[in-house]
Amino acid sequence: MRVLVVEDEKTLARYIAEGLRDRAMSVDLAHDGTTALDKLGSGEYDIVVLDRDLPGAHGDEVCRRLIADGGRARVLMLTAMADVGDRVTGLRLGADDYLGKPFDFEELVARVDALGRRSRPALPPVLRHGGIALDSGLREVTRDGRPVVLSNKEFGVLAALMAAGGAVVSAEELLRTVWDENADPFTNAVRITMHRLRGKLGEPTAIETLPGVGYRMAGRAA
Fold first, then answer.
1. pLDDT tens digits along 115-160
2. CB neighbours (10 Å) of residue 165?
3. Which of 160, 154, 190, 192 is closest to 172 using CA atoms?
4. Is residue 41 classed exposed, middle or buried when 0-12, 13-18 and 19+ CB atoms within 10 A define those classes?
5. Which residues on neighbouring strands pair with residue 135, listed in sequence order?
6. Which residues are bridge partners to 30 per DSSP?
7. In 83-185, where does DSSP find H-type helix?
8. What angle do CA 62, 27, 104 make, to 5 degrees?
9. For 30-34, 156-160, 170-174, 196-200, which range has the lowest pLDDT when averaged over its residues?
């Protein structure tokens, strides 16, 4: 899942971004509304965590423009203005959810997860392919009942491949959805992560490489 965090308080923005990355999400940052609109115009996001009181373009304008432009991203408004009138205004602008500051981080994660399920076709809570099971809620992976401990990037790559249902996923798509906008398109990050992931999953090889095309899960889905 790819998330854009729009928050002018830089310490809070980094806190949110780092926490979501720990949940194997790809996170980009914007600290003002104008930058947020630029990023929304040039990239595809599943979720926008949007502060309402922003410099540059106000958060209300960012939300309004996103909806008017037909953006598919779900919007979670995150703001200190949390009385009923403010919530109603935000929702009428097109926001999908509203969370006031201060907030509990686990609640924020739960709301982002819920919006993510609405932003794309629903997937089962546990993805299965062959003997591999991936529980996105618990962030647990097993193969033939054996626990497999993965890094955030390894987990994100495996989740993307399993969600594809046997279809090929390109390295470029993995960089976009598992890393973030700062990822170098010429980096070996995907190849290195794939090598480590294959090693942890063990034999027989669970992931196929199609040279020049991408990667897919080997064999049949469960």
1. 887 756 556 678 899 899 999 878 899 999 999 999 989 999 999 8
2. 12
3. 190
4. exposed
5. 126, 140
6. 6
7. 84-93, 105-119, 152-163, 171-178
8. 85
9. 170-174
Q: Which residues pair with 74 in a beta bridge?
A: 47
The residue type at 47: I
Residue type, 106: E
pTM over 0.70: no
Question: CB of 25 within 8 A of CB of 34?
Answer: no
- The DSSP symbol for 179 reads S
Residues linked to residue 27 through DSSP beta bridges, in sequence order: 3
**Cis bond upstream, residue 102 (ω within 30):** yes
Residue in the structure block whose two tokens are 């969600």: 163
Q: What is the pLDDT of residue 87?
A: 64
User: How far is C-alpha 91 from the geometric centre of its chain's CA atoms?
Assistant: 22
Q: How far apart (Å, rounded) are the C-alpha atoms in residues 12 and 16? A: 6
